Amino acid sequence: MVKLCVFDLDGTVLDTVGSIAYYGNYALQKNGIEPIDPPEYKYLAGTGIANLIRKMLEFRHCYSESLYERVYHDYDTAYNADVSYKSRIFDGLKEALDAIKAQGVRLAIASNKPDFAAKTVVNKLYGEGYFAYVTGQVPGGVLKPDPTVVLNVVEQMGVRREECLYIGDTSTDMQTGKNAGIFTVGVLWGFRGKDELVENGADWIVAKPCELFELVTDRNRREMQ
Fold it and tell me: Is domain 4-15+87-224 classified as CATH 3.40.50.1000?
């Protein structure tokens, strides 16, 4: 019986690539660096802000410690001022999540996005309390694919791992779910493609939000038979 769905954030419950690209390019240009085409950010994001800034500078072949510090500061300051700018809910996803919740399944988020930003953007676009639990990266905390943050969510929700699904859109997410020992679902509406998800251990792939609802419904129906 599925009692809890734990989601990644960027590229899974929210389309944030436009936001990340906007602030990333703002920080680059402020420091005299050529901007990066927005679609490239799908491959730069996903492993925390520190890694994002490093990858941006490496992409432009201009990494240095001093430049990293400046770009990080400019990105972080601008982004935190309006974390929901250019972010949106994927088409059809809210309806699918509403239907999943109607079955009594709780929803949670475990993200590599800074905790403040994760909570703020989710509450702004979904409404406060829509997800039962939202957590992001905290100072000194580990990043996914370390399973610690996901396992903590499972513990906080008072369920067993076999009663959960972990849902994400990148190799990092697939590795996280497998490391946590949780049935892991890859989504194709996010930042990466099917091959990456399968190669990194996805137990199931869904192309559309309605297919996620169907997966949860089917698993719970079979448990009740």
Answer: yes
